[in-house]
Specification:
The chain is built from 2 helices and no strands.
Length: 58
């Protein structure tokens, strides 16, 4: 096994802060990339609905 203990795994030979910061940053970007399309779609649908309502009033 490359690491003798869990603490050594977390510290990654003194580079743990950088490694885990990048992992966290990547995870946040991944979640953002998965969630943002639904927010954008919801805004577009709401805008289209408002436009349709305005056109029906005319």
């Amino acid at each position: 096994m490359p690491f003798d203990s869990l603490a050594e795994f977390w510290s990654m030979g003194g580079h743990g802060f950088y490694v885990w910061t990048v992992v966290l940053f990547f995870a946040l970007l991944l979640v953002l990339n998965l969630v943002s399309p639904s927010f954008i779609t919801r805004r577009i649908k709401a805008r289209l609905k408002r436009q349709q309502q305005l056109q029906q009033r005319r």
